[in-house]
Amino acid sequence: MTNNKILYLITASFLFWLGGSHPSPAEMIDPAMLSGDIRLILKRGVWKTWEGEPVDQDITLDLVCDANKCDREVWGFAPKFNQADHQGLLQTSQRGRLWNLDVQMQIYPDPWQSLAGQADYDIQVRLHDDNQLIGTYSGTVNDQPVKGEVQGIIRPHWSQPLANHRPLRPQEHPRLIFRPDQLPQLRQQAKTPRGEAILAQLQRSLDQPIYYDGYVPTGGYHAAGYCFLSLIQQDQAAATTAWQITINSMNQPGPRLLEHSTVVAGVALAYDLCYPAWDEEQVQQVADWLATQTALLVKGTAGDGWNPNPASNWNARARGAAGLAALALLEEGDVETRRWLKIAERNIKRYLTIGIGDRGFGSEGDHYSTEPWFLTVMSFLQAYQTVLGEELVTRSHAAWFLPQYVTRMVGEDGEVAIPSYGRHRLSPTGSMFAVGLGIVPEPLLPGVMWFFNRHWGRNGDNSFGIELPHEAAYIFAEYPQYVTPQNPANVWGRVLVDEQKGFFTFRNQWRDKNDFVTSIYVKREKPRGGHWSFPDAGSFRIWGLGGRWATAGSASDGTQKDENVVLLPEKQAGNEAQLTGFLS
What we know:
Elements: H1 3-18, E1 36-50, E2 53-66, E3 69-70, E4 73-77, E5 85-95, E6 98-107, E7 117-128, E8 132-141, E9 144-155, E10 160-161, H2 183-189, H3 193-206, H4 219-233, H5 236-250, H6 257-274, H7 280-299, H8 313-329, H9 337-355, H10 366-388, E11 390-391, H11 401-408, E12 410-412, E13 415-417, H12 431-436, H13 445-455, H14 471-478, H15 488-491, E14 495-498, E15 503-507, E16 517-521, E17 539-544, E18 547-550, H16 570-573
Antiparallel strand pairs: 1-2, 1-9, 2-3, 2-4, 4-5, 5-6, 6-7, 7-8, 8-9, 10-11, 12-13, 14-15, 15-16, 16-17, 17-18
């Protein structure tokens, strides 16, 4: 038999396996099935040199499609290759049961892996079950041939469009928290008892010292608070004060990306809120600085403890700030801004998928989970809605972040605490609620509002959760007056289970500091690359009748002596556990 005949038979067999060369209409892929966020894993799709030899690694391609019509932009991520996001162009076609994709992708370096270049993939897949794709690919990476299997999954679109969203006008500001057409209503609101209470709390927060160093530099947040005051009270003097604080903040960057992220987030908010009050030269100076810092936070650094892994609070804090700054600058001249925004969004999505469980419990413990949320992540999610008219919360783990804490918190009139997990025993404060009310999905909002009003609103300590000055703008604009608060037991019940992380919370009622709250952490998932993981598989907490019956030490250095673990050696308690049964 000739070589040509052998090649023909192999090709014919392959086509038959993928669906045949002449499929019947019943065998063709329904284009409607190719709708959603589509993820394709190309086995051994990239390579890097290790000890002088190329080593193959998998790469995941992310597509957004609607009835086989896909966005031209395609993104890739290969965490065993490096921590960068890779950008490409996509063309698709359909032939019977085969879906053909041609991808031209730019491979980017990260701070540790300098290899970059071009990848070209010719992909053929077919539908397997309702949302699974299988097939093969071939191509080149930096002129070296690659080929292998493809596995894919089709999920519903993550982002959801908001009704009646109006696209941004050129140079329109403010935009990150509210839009200019909301200002007249907000100024009227300032004359109501609630508005007066919020502004009084804003003034108290502005009177607090400004910190340009430490783990949470607050200069930018103070500047944003003055900018908000300038807008609401039409006070140019407040904008002038904000300008000087903004300059001080830009001139005193954080020593690491962890600290610097809050500087950038605060300056981005000040830029947005003071844009109408500052002159053109001032606006441009801040815009140029923000563009440079956005790129830095997206790219990361090779030292100073930088951790870009998806589960890390460093990643969440830095990429939340980068996304917020990119949204402040969007459509204002820098062609790279949209790319920085997309990479920040992708990192936040990975964090929400891996670092936070399906009911909002964080793998790094309560302090390292809540801190990035009220400092940058919630601000990014809110701005994404306001600027782009799409929300990233309803179909993500972010939906349950605040309800999870409502289920676990105990106290009265703002004096609340939780039986915490993780390195620090610090409890979340009202700040998380002041910034986060605007992103809580409507079905869960009545329970969150009941708890918020009881502790920080007019029925509580009247602080509205405001601790840092910028938080006043959020609670001013996003306080949901239309919601009828309901006891959380009537909204989502008294048992909350995070199946992904293996975290179980049981509560008898929501009444006062004497409520019983019991939780146990099975630790079903230990993500790779987080800063902090503890010997806490099987750890439990019991609070009730105003007492703390089963808790942990005041702080933890990562050893079991600081934990409260069920009959486990330290080595076992540091690993993942498996759930064998559950009954509520």
